[in-house]
Amino acid sequence: MAGIAYRRRALPICWETYRREGVTNAGQQISLLRALAGLFPEDTEVVVVGDGAFHSTDLMEPVEDQGWHFCLRLHTDTYVRASAEGPWKQLRELVPEEGERRYLQKVLAGERQRVRSSQSRPLPRRGRGRSVADLH
Description:
This protein is mainly beta. It is globular, with a radius of gyration of 15 Å.
C-alpha cells in the first residue's frame, strides 16, 4: 500500500493485493513503486518511507531512478561501508553508544555485500533495525 501523508495520517492512493501470507518481496514492492510513477506533478518532492517490510536495499535504485527520496528501515545484518575502499560492516556494528549520535554520509549499502546505493546514509535508531535515507 502506498499513501500520502496528510495531517499525521497516511491516505491510501495505490495498493496491490496478493494471495499469500506474510510480507511482500522486493519485486512486488518495486511493482507498486512503478505503479506510482507519473502520478505526482513534476515539482512534487516524493519521499518513500518504508517500514520493516520494505527493508530491501533493492528498493533504493528504483526510487532514485524516479528522482524520489527514501527512508527505509533496514535489518541489522545489512552490510554498509563508508567508502569504496573501506571495510564492509553490518549495521549492528555501527550502533552508537547510549547518548551518542552517529551520522554517516555517502554510505554504500548492500545485502551480503552487494552495493545498492552510493548516496544513502544510515541513521541511528533503537530496536532491531536501522534506517537508511538519501535525504541531505
